[in-house]
Description:
With 586 residues, this protein is of the alpha/beta class. The protein has helices at residues 2-21, 70-77, 81-92, 97-113, 138-143, 155-161, 181-199, 211-223, 243-249, 258-268, 276-279, 284-303, 307-311, 315-325, 332-345, 349-358, 387-391, 453-464, and strands at 42-45, 52-55, 63-66, 126-129, 170-172, 204-209, 229-235, 362-369, 371-372, 380-381, 394-395, 427-428, 438-442, 480-482, 490-494, 508-513, 520-527, 530-531, 538-540, 545-549, 558-567, 576-583. The chain has a domain at 489-583: Immunoglobulin-like (Sandwich), CATH 2.60.40. The protein contains 18 helices and 22 strands. A hairpin with a 7-residue loop joins β9 (371-372) and β10 (380-381). α1 crosses α3, α3 (81-92) crosses α4 and α4 (97-113) packs across α12 (284-303). The chain is globular and about 75 Å long.
Amino acid sequence: MKMKRVISAILCAVMIFGCTASTATAAKKDNIPAFEWDGNPVIFIQGYSGPILIRDRGLETEEEVWGINAGDLIKKLIPNLYGIVSSLAKYADGDPQPFIEQFREISAELIDDISMMPDGSSKYNIVSFPCVVEEASIAYIREELKGKGTPFFQDDFIDAMAQTVPEEYIYVFNTDWRRSQIDNSAHLAEFIDSVLEETGADKVDIFSMSHGGQLTATYLYYYGTQAKVDNAVLNSPATGGTTLVTELLGAEPINFNMEELLRFACVMLNIELDLRWLGRLLPGEFLNSLVKTAFNEVLLPHAIYFGSVWDFMDIETYTRLRDVYLDPVENADIIEKADKLHYDCMANIGEGLRRAQAAGVNIHIISNYGTQLGTGKKIDSDFIINTTHTCGANASVYGETLGKDYVQKNTVCKDSSHDHVAPTGTVDASSCYLPENTWFVYEQYHTQTWYDPYTRCLILELLLTDNIADVHSDSRYPQFELSQNPLDGVYARFTDSKTGEYGALSDEMLIKSLTDNYSLNILSVKINGVEQDTDEKLVIRRNGEITVPCKIPEGADRLKVEIRYERKNDILSNPFVRTIYFECKD
């Protein structure tokens, strides 16, 4: 048993080292549309911890204290590799102290550099980079800064925007991600004014993701009526926080699904591998305990002074934990801003966004659903953020539906003729902050929209044009759609047998391969558990498609289509099942 624990510890160290060394591959550049530019500058706001932080900017002591750089992390890990493996082995044998000390030693300098004071101010003189408008255009970043400051892994997305908008009119807004969104939204308001002054434009367009989406929502709540924004696209916004942070702060154990975590990592890095089989071999309980220990023993004492950590909590959790971790005198400034965000902005965010809409801002939200929350809670999410917290929708417990007799709430959308319930029966968008302007993508991971051609085109059109007013405007972009990332394997829709086009339920189904690298063997197709008679072995070439006959069961209100397939000539692959839901409508 002891040897098994030691092997597990070594495997953990290899995973840490190997994942750190990974790099993303380039996205496909096909199907990237260009549009007629409307003259609006575009502001890109990235997610949590993305922006670089600089200490003592402009002084002789200037130093970069935060930047996502795998190479630097590897250099720090290599000299300590023996100590890491040794401490992990001792942890596996029941002694956590060596690991805690090793992790504290490795991270001490980094933690100190980005530490905050009890009042929520920075311990050191730190600014985000680039943070002034003169340095923040993509043209300047690429030509003068040699790419430093470009949003992490977003070169392809920026290249796509640049097909419509000149690079000197695409700006990256970097703010201090440690601070409260109350501070950051004021900073964004100043930055927008600077962009408008520099470019002479009347309005800007904003694309934001995750923590940046929460920031944009906060800005629109407090400043949206100034109508300085034309189009705002919020991709997987942490508008209402995320239970993920609460899970790390809480006393209960966490339970990361190792198979899903590995798949998420591959999607995030755009690596067309499915390593879920490896997740079954990993010591999940051990790794979960390791993460919890590292966070609580080393990171938590510093993280509680980050305003952003409190911003990530929903209102109920914030109210419960505020008095546990924060002192009403020593941490009064943190509490004041967190109270304002939660009890003013978060509590009324739908009203605030609709107020900005009425002032002329076109606000669009991309929400992902159909995945269990990463830490193991039975919460419908995009693995990182609760579906409900991104958009206000009513969502079922993960693994369940809203119920066979569920009636659409219509709490925000009052038009009963609008069908806002997902084909999965798990999400009701009629209760969203913006029911007519929120799109949902099933089984798409957090912010991983760029490698999905459907969502990629939707985002670009929402951001750069006024072609799509709402979810009813364009049949190409229904309110509920499936993720079409290459790792999803296959995509399916019923077709019109006469025209071959996508249509309502019919006696034919078009199955498309999403992968560039493999031909697929379709092993079976089931509808509501009944295997369809295909009469032959079905093979789909890479990026190809086939049409298969199918029988729709009579009286069904929802169809569950299961496509079982395998990748040809992929020695690491096991058979997979893609499950797709369709609603039977009159």
